[in-house]
What we know:
Elements: E1 7-8, E2 14-18, E3 26-32, E4 35-37, E5 41-52, E6 64-73, E7 78-86, E8 95-109, E9 139-155, E10 157-174, H1 178-181, H2 197-204, E11 214-216, E12 219-227, E13 238-248, E14 258-272, E15 276-289, E16 298-299, E17 306-307, E18 327-344, E19 347-364, E20 382-393, E21 397-406, E22 414-420
Antiparallel strand pairs: 1-4, 2-3, 3-5, 4-5, 5-6, 6-7, 7-8, 8-9, 9-10, 10-11, 10-12, 12-13, 13-14, 14-15, 15-18, 16-17, 18-19, 19-20, 20-21, 21-22
Amino acid sequence: MFRKLLLVLLILSVAFAMGQEAKTGWGFGGVPAVAYNSDTGFLYGIVFEAYNYGDGSHYPDYDYTIKPTWTQTTKGSGANELFFDSKYLLPKDIRITAYAGYLTEQALPFYGFNGYEANYTNGFEVSDSTNYITRMYYRHERNTLRLTVDFQKSVLSENLRAIAGVGYISTEVASVDIKVLNEDQDDADKLPDVPALYDEYVTAGYIGTEEADGGLTPYIKLGLVFDTRDNESNPMSGIWTEALFTTYPGFMGSDFDFSTLTATHRQYFTLIENDLSFAYRLGYQQNFGDTPFFMLPWYQSSYKVTEGLGGSKSLRGILKNRIVGNSIVMANMEARWKFFRTVVGGQNLYLALNGFGDFGQVITPYEVEGQTLPIAADEGLHIAYGGGLRIVLNENFIVAIDYGMAADEQDGNSGLYIGLGYLY
Length: 424
């Protein structure tokens, strides 16, 4: 089995500011983490955020933010990412959001298609189980280069914005390289050279030869965003709703001709002024055309594109990418309580607890031309629940710790997630 992180050695938020006050000039924060996985090795790196508040006139908004991420494992997996966002840098109130990233993933989760229709057997990954196959059975290798830029401009009213963006995505997919992962392993811990689920799907034709190795998928994105949030990082009130159409046309060099419609609604309510809020998110995504299997998990957004359903950015406690299909829905509900506030070194600091319930389901199954996919059970609602802690500096730098549990063992057991920011 691809083992969970065995040890989190360091969870540390480091924050400081330049300028006379926290509400002006620069603010910086980072979460360095060291972890170990017996297959992929030691992980080390940092997730860093820098905010420029200018003269403070837009606070709690920032003038612009730069968020670099760099992580690496001793056996080759890594994330090299740079994110930029500003509502005030460009003239005429044009918001720009840009991302550049190269992700090398030696053991990306793959559980088949259409949720519960694809059976998940935990024992296939557990070395001492009677039906053990390999710890890499539900894994494949993926390397992704992603370059994107979005522009938003108010139309008709201040809160309604049109969005237009372009992106370039190059994806390489392969079987897990067990020779690399077996280096320096004891004989008893070495991975067997046997087919994984990805390999079985390729052999059976469930994953076509034209998509099995990945491909190019540049795109154009158009849409509308309605936003009345009082504070983008952790709103106490307001609505954030968007409808996006993303197309991957051949004339831009895409190897696959397909499109995606994404609709997401988020709403925030104050229950106790300044301290307690309730937030929910509803999401729907539909694919049209010749969608390659490796693009199914990606969920479009006007801010950051995420991957799911399942995992830290969608359904916490459910296995990452457990739920993929031609169309999916998700829902998140969360109560957020700011229970402690103080000022440290001139910086505004608060602590918050959150309790959540996450839900998702495949609505339209992914189908393969000329093939009948195996069906282990009827698809249904996937449910997870849990809670977490937030450490928040100057309203925007947010250390996030969440623990989620899956309601059905077909979706896994539980997950601990450490990162930055609220989920939505």
